[in-house]
Specification:
The protein is mostly helical. The chain has one domain: MFS general substrate transporter like domains (Growth Hormone, Chain: A, Up-down Bundle), CATH 1.20.1250.20.
């Protein structure tokens, strides 16, 4: 792995660890603070707003100042935000004071998170040919899944070590990942582009120029965000267990999703390079996920649905990300920032929808996932028409 690769993977691993740890312990967070699922959905969603607004700006900074410098600044802010959240939980604040302090911690975290992914994605594709970008991005996505695997594993240890202890361990691990990646860098990444490729227009592009891709990103992440928020309370109620045991079940489901994404995303992209084949693969997986999660009334069905959703997302995300970057190869940072912003908006919508769905339909809160695969396949067809119009070969 290149030096840039190590620098990219560390902060992304950190993000996976911290995000998955919080999702896995959501039942405990609700019990610890006395705040409802709806309030926690608002807290987590509010922390995504700085990512939504700031990621495109971070992306432009990546193109202009270099990915390594942006990665260092953004990672520091993420660590400060998570440390502030631990401080609030450690003091045992409740009610309005807890909400205020938790919101502040999540906002700091969100400001930094908006810069981590654009910087990492730029470092991941530098020096690669355009036809290899989807594979490079799928490899970077492995680090996200690896982090999402570590986070729930730590939360699963809470039954023996206590939840505050394992959350503190997650913070220490995140710090080590970031500092280790910084030490691996022997030189800062430069803002110049290390490849030559054709594009439609190398100038800054309006958002609507790539709307099919951005809409695919929005639909997918909104669905994943809703599933992530619903998962903990749903598994806890389905199994009829305590909040701590429900957190362990949630951690197990997230571990399964991380293993599936970690293994099969790069595997598929290394072997399947044609668009029709990839569409069939991720479309079929997401259709199965919608059926299992929408109608599932048992733990095995829910776990199978999570695995299918993780598989489909691991194949789909690098696919549309690579196609969009091929349109604007000289704007890697800006494209990555816009995708990060779009993904964040999807997670905000999904998180808010998850809290709402749990309250209005606790028995089958994920029926809407039946529409996920058909909607994305239609957008993929629209994207192909869009590509042909611009005479870009995918």
């Amino acid at each position: 792995m290149t030096i840039r690769g190590r620098e990219a993977w560390g902060p992304v691993l950190m993000m996976g660890v911290l995000q998955s740890a919080l999702v896995a312990c959501l039942p405990w967070l609700m019990e610890r603070t006395g705040l409802s699922a709806g309030v926690w959905s608002l807290i987590l969603s509010a922390g995504m707003i700085p990512v939504l607004l700031g990621a495109p700006l971070w992306g432009r900074l990546v193109d202009g100042r270099g990915a390594r410098r942006v990665s260092m600044m953004a990672s520091t802010l993420v660590l400060v935000g998570f440390g502030s959240l631990l401080l609030v939980l450690g003091t045992g604040l409740e009610g309005a004071a807890a909400v205020t302090c938790l919101l502040a911690a999540r906002l700091i975290h969100g400001i930094g998170a908006g810069g981590v992914f654009p910087a990492a994605q730029r470092m991941a594709v530098v020096g690669a040919r355009p036809e290899d970008w989807s594979y490079r991005l799928s490899r970077l996505q492995m680090s996200v899944h690896a982090g999402r695997l570590v986070g729930p594993v730590l939360i699963a240890l809470a039954a023996w070590l206590g939840m505050m202890t394992v959350l503190s361990l997650a913070g220490v691990l995140a710090l080590l990942l970031v500092t280790g990646s910084r030490r691996s860098g022997e030189r800062p990444s430069r803002p110049d582009v290390a490849w030559e490729s054709e594009s439609v227009d190398h100038g800054r592009q309006p958002w609507l120029a790539g709307w099919p891709y951005y809409l695919m990103a929005l639909v997918l992440t909104a669905s994943v965000g809703a599933v992530q928020f619903v998962l903990g309370p749903r598994l806890t109620a389905m199994a009829g267990v305590s909040a701590d045991m429900g957190s362990s079940l949630t951690a197990a489901a997230l571990i399964l999703a991380s293993v599936v994404g970690l293994v099969f995303g790069p595997l598929v992209h290394a072997r399947a390079r044609t668009n029709p084949v990839l569409v069939v693969i991720w479309g079929g997986a997401l259709l199965a996920a919608g059926l299992l999660l929408g109608y599932g009334q048992s733990l095995p069905a829910m776990f199978a649905g999570i695995a299918a959703l993780a598989f489909g997302a691991a194949v789909l995300t690098p696919w549309y990300g690579s196609l969009l970057r091929q349109r604007y190869p000289d704007l890697q940072g800006e494209v990555a920032g816009r995708l990060t912003s779009t993904h964040t908006l999807g997670y905000i919508i999904g998180t808010l929808a998850g809290g709402w769905l749990l309250e209005i339909s606790p028995e089958q809160p994920l029926l809407a996932l039946l529409l996920l695969a058909p909607a994305l396949v239609m957008l993929a067809w629209r994207a192909r028409v869009f590509i042909r119009r611009d005479r870009i070969v995918c």
